[in-house]
Design a protein that fits this description.
This protein has helices spanning 12-16, 76-97, 106-122, 124-134, 139-148, 154-158, 225-229, 263-276, 301-305, 349-370, 391-416, and strands at residues 6-8, 28-32, 37-40, 43-46, 50-53, 60-62, 67-69, 72-74, 161-166, 176-177, 182-185, 208-213, 218-223, 256-260, 280-283, 321-325, 331-335, 379-380, 383-384. By secondary structure, it is an alpha+beta fold.
């Protein structure tokens, strides 16, 4: 009989996606980043930080989701809420780990985003974040609010640029943490107010990337469109139309695939995951748990400025409006940030012209930094974008930087005054 009081805030099935199929003993190297100090009489010692445990013993707390009212206890949230979420999510996560164009599975998309949103809230770190957000200290009430706000991040993630990256050619693989839906913002250093305790940079900040490892070899990176169009702006400024709990449009064709990460890039992503963990991380190999030993950057912000987490802007279409027609003759319109025609900033022409210049400057800079080979391939007009630009098209992108970078530098100089 299942023990519904033993609550895995990182599901066991998800953990198994990070253990190689060919190992006999399905166990992690499980690292406690802040091991407890034990006092036994006059002796004082620190508990062992590194353990070899399997998924049943990792990332769980007893009665984390148990509600208590006086002497009465209930495990219904674990059994009927999280149980249902996990059952529908497993196939979805596996689908996205193996995603290839031209596949379109709306059920897999519809299951993934609520699962990610709930996963971000259900961890010990996430529950503390939620308690602060809703200004509640009673555990029972926080768990009730979690169910009410379970889709809080879905609309904004829907409108992000999606990139699925591949670590299969790297010796180092992705690690997992006790807060597996990880965020990075180059303006929010680990000791900043945004990152103290259970705090995380909000996903509605321009420069916030969301990192969700799908397996040991695949990860989903989500980046705000406004940041892709202007990575020279303020990463702490709110993205356009940050309204939550609203309809949002998703385009399977714009998902970027085919990017093979270098060993160094995998290590950098693992470094972010470890820095944003709350207390525990796990990996199939011990050396993967210490990415800081091979971290090449001098400071946190350099990760962002290196564009490691960015999709390839050359595989992104600069669009402004989308229209949907229905069989009954009704139609709807959205701009690129999910605003409707009656919104005062709908299809903002001034912003459009500004982002046109910064976006094309970024395309040119990206081409100069990484060469003609694309680092992410979308799917447009029924065929894949070419994986490598020819000499003429590459030269065109380089000219874009020369043409628009003076405008970008002028705007940056003005902003810093």
């Amino acid at each position: 009989m299942p023990d519904y009081s033993r609550n895995h805030y990182v599901p066991e099935w998800y953990q198994y996606l990070f253990l190689p199929d060919d190992i006999r003993e399905k166990k992690f190297l499980y690292l406690d980043l802040t091991p407890d100090t034990v006092i036994n009489g006059k002796k004082r010692y620190e508990r062992k930080a590194l353990l070899r445990w399997g998924p049943p013993k990792c990332f769980y707390e007893q009665d984390l989701y148990t509600t208590k009212f006086g002497g009465w206890k209930s495990t219904e949230i674990e059994e009927k809420f999280f149980g249902k979420v996990d059952n529908s999510a497993k196939a979805s996560v596996i689908y996205w780990s193996n995603f290839m164009h031209p596949s379109v599975d709306t059920k897999a998309r519809n299951n993934l985003l609520p699962y990610m949103s709930i996963q971000k809230l259900r961890t010990p770190k996430g529950l503390k974040y939620l308690a602060n957000l809703v200004k509640l200290s009673d555990k029972n009430m926080v768990l009730i609010e979690l169910q009410k706000l379970q889709n809080i991040f879905c609309a904004l993630w829907t409108e992000c640029i999606w990139s699925i990256v591949d670590a299969s050619q790297s010796k180092t693989k992705f690690i997992i943490s006790d807060h597996p839906v990880t965020v990075y913002n180059q303006g929010c250093f680990p000791r900043s107010k945004w990152c103290i305790g259970a705090n995380d940079p909000d996903i509605w900040l321009n420069g916030t990337h969301t990192i969700f490892p799908l397996s040991s070899n695949k990860a989903l990176l989500l980046t705000n469109l406004s940041w892709v169009r202007n990575p020279y702006g303020n990463p702490l400024k709110g993205r356009p139309n940050p309204t939550l709990f609203r309809p949002a449009m998703f385009n399977f064709l714009s998902i970027q695939t085919g990017r093979i990460l270098s060993e160094e890039e995998v290590i950098v992503i693992n470094y972010i995951i470890k820095e944003r963990a709350y207390r525990y991380i796990a990996a199939a190999e011990e050396e993967w748990l210490y990415p800081e030993q091979n971290f090449k950057f001098d400071h946190w912000g350099e990760i962002g400025s290196s564009y490691i987490l960015m999709p390839d802007p050359r595989s992104i279409t600069f669009s402004s409006e989308a229209f949907i027609g229905y069989d009954n003759g009704r139609s709807e319109a959205f701009d690129e940030y999910g605003r409707r025609p009656w919104h005062e900033d709908y299809n903002d022409k001034m912003r459009h012209d500004y982002e046109w210049k910064t976006f094309h400057a970024f395309q040119g800079e990206y081409a100069r930094l990484f060469g003609p080979k694309r680092r992410g391939i979308a799917f447009e007009f029924g065929d894949k974008d070419k994986s490598e630009d020819n000499a003429d098209f590459h030269a065109y992108h380089l000219r874009l930087e020369q043409q628009y970078k003076p405008f970008v530098k002028k705007k940056i100089k003005h902003r810093r005054k």
